[in-house]
Amino acid sequence: MSDQAQVWILDNGQQKVAIAFAELVAVVRHPDIYTLPYSSSWSNRFSHWQNNIIPVINLSERLEKRIEAPLPTSQTKKHNMLCILAYPGKNDVAYGGFLTQHPPYDITISNDMAYHLPQPVQAWQSISRSCINYQSELIPILNISAIYAP
Question: In the chain, how long is the greatest CA-to-CA distance?
């Protein structure tokens, strides 16, 4: 049994995160992102993909659990890619979106790369499976279901 696995690295410009290899199903370049009024800033965005409404989570704000006005449009346009992530839904596959500045890339990870979660540890514990130290950078491995279907 191998202690190695493939993961995707996603970079939103503030934090790199990893997801299981099978969870990334598409990358949309220059996506249309819409804002929902009267909702928290970490969960007030959505997009469309293949006849699905895709919730787009702002991970930085999710970790801080901010409830405030959305970012100005000029700040949200810096993300030129939307990664479509799949996770088990109630009856079928469900999808969520993660905005990135750079294309995702895959790496091979192993047990000897395991490391403690970055700060704020308590916030990361609720949405991460574990963490790796890759090229001297702590990269949490996200639990997609915990983020999009808490």
Answer: 49
Q: Is 39 left (phi over 0), alpha (psi -120 to 50) or beta?
A: beta
What percentage of residues in the chain have a pLDDT greater than 70?
Answer: 87
Number of separate domains in the chain: 1
Would you say 21 and 6 are in contact if contact means Cβ atoms under 8 Å apart? Answer: yes
- Residue 47: strand pairing partners: 54
- 67 CB-near residues (< 8 Å, 6+ apart): 40, 41
- CATH number of the domain that 34 lies in? 2.40.50.180
**Planar angle of CA 14, 18, 20, nearest 5 degrees:** 155
Q: List, for residues 10-69, the tens digit of each pLDDT value.
A: 998 888 999 999 999 999 999 999 988 877 777 789 999 999 999 998 887 777 654 444
Full domain range(s) for residue 140? 4-148
Helix (H, G, I), strand (E, B) or coil at 66: coil
